[in-house]
Amino acid sequence: MNHLNQNSFGVQMRLRHLAQLVVVLACTVVCVSCGQVYRPVVIPITITPPNPSNFHEVFAINANVPFNPGTGMQVDVSGDTNVGVINIGLNPTHAAILPNNTRVFVASAGSVVGQSDIVTSFIPAFQAAIGTGLSAGVTISLPGQTSSITAISESGNLVTATLNAPLNNIGLGDVIVIAGAGIAGYNGTFTVFPISGTTIQYVNSVTGLAPSLGGTASVPAQPVFLASTQNDAMYVANYNSSSVAVINTRLNAVTNSALVGQHPVALAETPNGNKLYVANQGSNAVSSLNTVDMSQNTVTGFSGSVGITPVWLVSRSDSQKVYVLTQGDGQLVTIDTATDTVVSNLPVGAGANFVFYDPHLNRLYVTNPSTSMVHVFSTTGGANDTPIQLSAISMTAGPNPPCPSACTPSSVTALGDGSRFYVASYEIATSCPDPVIGSSSACVIPRLTVFDANSFAVKTALTLLSSPPFASNPSTHQSQYAVPPVASCAPAALYAPGTTRFRVFTTASVDSSRVYVSMCDAGSIAIVTTTTSSISPGGNMPDTLVRDLAAPFSAASSSTGGEPPPQSPVFLLTGQ
Fold this sequence. Notes:
Radius of gyration: 31 Å
Shape: globular
Number of strands: 38
Strand order of the largest sheet: 8-9-12-11-10-13
Strand content: 35-45%
Number of helices: 1
Oligomer: single chain
């Protein structure tokens, strides 16, 4: 018993000494902590996490400064990030994606600066645990027309070339390339003056040349538009050669072509893949082609008082109707695809530039920059199953207009769920109201107006620049909402390669979670979320600007001596 008591007493003493040691160490730690020892502190910041969502993609086409290639850029919808960039050709104009989303094609009308006309094909980046980026691009050359020269001579600065065979559908102002002439001064890229049969004339800066023999005269293609509802073929509209080429997507090569009207600028293939329609701006005509062999059908009723300067086309989802927008006389023309006959035309005002088809609501939305109007049509309901107008919306007039200071609607898109449609527009101010730019300068203010699809009422109007990447006024901390105008971003009255078609352009993601607006002058793409966070309700409001995603840097030097400015986004394309 005495032995047990002694052991117990020993244990108690050891525990007492250990407790004293712990107290001493704790005091030491407290004292040290009160000295000059940094103690990191983590302060939690409450944020709204991103919505979990499936992988979706949008593509941007960006134009570079002259003589430098543009870029294609893929945007991850759920991450609001740039996931890949690829170099494409000079002067990119338009893009299309195969229905199975496996390949993107970009048309580059490089011949406007004397370079090769190409279409670039690339594979998008797909959802993966590790970012793979975009595939290496495949370049597809587009052959133009070529004829051998039997004689060539010069009088003053006017050159006359006699050809072995005529060049079809070529007219005043088209581009021609002379190569291999016996006298080198005749070679180069020129603008056609008059042409008649096998005789072609153009102005040459080199004078005093003697007559010569040999060489070739060729017509560059100038691809400006792509379209397809098939996975094994992509169709290309060639502005300068007045033709449509067929690219076999398995071979990445042109396997067929057809001459159409002069200066084609837009295409639409019926969803069943049977017919391809072509808007021929230069000849005020629409071509109908059978896709099986590119043979032509006669389109009746599209001439005279109906059909001046066709600019855009869309096909109804049942393939029974194609709608043509004409800029010159401002008509929305309906063609019955079974007979290729015009069955109706509805006025939308001269200057109309773009029509968007909403398959969910079976609607057509038309923007008119000249009148600042947006027209909304149901594709059915009229005589012969033709459209009827549901609304004509003024962007600048009436009570509480979206743009009281005047704005120019440029394009429109709609959500796939049928709830809203969005109009991208811009305001040109000669005395800029944005204090970051200053009233002594002109500026461009890009905007996006959100409309309720049922009532056509304005839900909200957004300015689209955020800081960063744009500046803010240090004295007022006001964010920048305008940018200085870029001369190359101003759209021409009549589109041609080398001019910008859309100063601002908009598209919606396939899951209706985002709307995107390319802003040419700003060198960036505005990303607008259309939903409220499902994780933290109320954390973000629908139809708000998430961020501005900058395009890749251009090849030009910065005016301030810093980094070069970004390229100019000119077109957006929705992927999967």
